[in-house]
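Researcher: Can you fold this with adenosine-5'-triphosphate in place?
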Amino acid sequence: MSLAQDMAAVPERAESTTAKPNPAWTLLRRILVQPKGAVGLTLVVLYLVLAVIGPALAPQDAFRQNFAQTLRPPSAAHWFGTDQLGRDVFSRILIGARATLGIGVGGVTVAFLIGVPLGILAAWRRGWIEAVLMRAIDVMLSFPDIVFALAVVAILGANTQNVIIAVGVVSIPVFARTARAVTLSVLAEPYIEGSVALGASPARVIMRHVLPNISGTLLTLSTLLFASTLLSASGLGFLGLGTQPPFPEWGTMLGDSRSYIRSHPYLATFPGLFLAVSALAFNLLGDALRTIYDPTSRRAARRLPMLNFLRRRTAASAPPAAGLAAAPAGPDAPVVAVEGLHLAFRTGEGLLEVVRGVDLTICAGRTLAIVGESGSGKSTLLRAIGTLANPQEVAITAGTVAIGGEPALGLPAAAVRDLRRRKIGIVFQDAASALNPVLTVGAQLAEAVRAGSRLGPQAVRQRCIALLRDVNIADPERRLEMYPHQFSGGMKQRIVIAIALAQNPELLLADEPTSALDVTIQQQILVLLREIQRKRGMAILLVTHDLNLVARFADDVAVMYAGRLVESGAIATVLEQPLHPYTQALRASAPGAGEGRGQPLRSIPGEPPLVGQLPSGCAFRPRCPRSANRAECAAQEPPERMVASRQVACVFAEEALS
Ligand SMILES: Nc1ncnc2c1ncn2[C@@H]1O[C@H](COP(=O)(O)OP(=O)(O)OP(=O)(O)O)[C@@H](O)[C@H]1O
């Protein structure tokens, strides 16, 4: 069946075509529909207007002292009365708005500019840098805000500039902690790994992917901290450590009024009221923003898509194998050569070995599928081959990996990025999280195309259009302007594939590429991958649990158990006549493996061994029907050897032939 016929056989859902409105207008609308947002935003805007045009509105000279008019109550001539020096309080409040709000803005800016980079650095580098930064922040947090601010002003001296520094320093820990937490969650998203796989530098990943995704949370935090910064600054002003006379600032005015609080209470009332309402305004606005950006407040809205997602994940496997995929012709040069690879997780108790001596090769134009139960080490192996294993987490204790003839292990970071970009493409399990939701598809494709190349904007655009055509997305010019949420699951996976193909990789890594899709779309995506592989001759390394998918799609299979490949060879050889008892059990437990309709699926008795607690000898021995306490199985780990055209690690493999 041709690709076109395959596509026609299973029509994919059309994607939503609603254009994305301007994000600023959307945000404004979402703030205004909330009563607290509407009130908060209106008040904040009024305050900001006051800060800008307040001095121009002042009816009287706010600095002129008039000892004949001291401590006058509110009247038509002095709406808010006069202070102890006979100055007009209303005019001083209007003029003081700029200094007061300026301190708030300045303080939050100082805290933001220092706290956010520190938080991102801690999340990015982890290890000792994170530990040192976070402990320092814990120490700062252990002091009450005002005490800390007082200490800073006492050291630097009392003036407006130092108040800004003091209240800013006080808020650094909150920004740093929040930035670290939200960055960690963004860094766990597959599209970050995709970007890293394209060779993007840390700075680029942070600017392009992390910052846009954490900006909502940081905006909310800035608004909330603005209120507390204002109050801290006013506290300093109240103590006489803020803006120095004769310049008015609401906190200082409040402080000056304390001697007259009983006899002339209006002196404290008006600056206090303006301060309290400003803090309330920023808090209301911050709260409205939190409602918008906090995912827990949108749980109800998400419930349906989540249910659909779970349903898709648990949907039945693909239909039974109709026949094994024909091996595509291609040159025999190995694109991947892995020899004696041992990988171990670094844990508190030392190294925990999860991949134990793997040898494999994949030639151009061929697909190798790695299958095995959950926890057998498939993903860890795939990530190490793709140079994506985090060295702080995974130790390569022995062995070599070469991609396209180039050694892939032990390289400096820049060389690893370059190798990945030139030779490796990655398709993730969940296309929805493999795409950055805040960037258009065109921007994400362009990033992949531009990585390491010097193409001009027009050439990049043409290449993006060609890539979308390659993955059979119609009307690519229009689709480039759309956002991921405007596409269906299958279309998103096509876009992820297009991104993976942007640098013409020699090797495509696919970790459960279709398990988040429903059955009909799975079929289309696999057909698409096969077609692209035929055209480009790339090697594909596929990790999956689905043996039917392996039978339809792969050329070779490697069965993994407890970190070792126990049987590997051509699909027709291994799946038609498995020799290892574990392969036999996997084959028997696959849907459509021989039982009639309504028959329960067979499961493999026993549990896979826990990492680090392997039995002596063959790791499959406790579950093996063939072992039956035979001494040979307990004596040593069976070496891999060639039996009937495949590698198999079982001392009694020949018994399956008879
Ligand atoms: N960070 C970690 N620290 C310690 N052990 C880990 C860590 N991550 C994974 N492991 C363990 O390593 C083993 C291999 O995990 P891996 O994800 O590679 O298995 P898998 O075969 O891909 O499983 P699945 O099919 O569920 O993805 C598992 O036993 C897992 O518990």
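Model: Folded with adenosine-5'-triphosphate in place. The longest strand covers residues 334-347.
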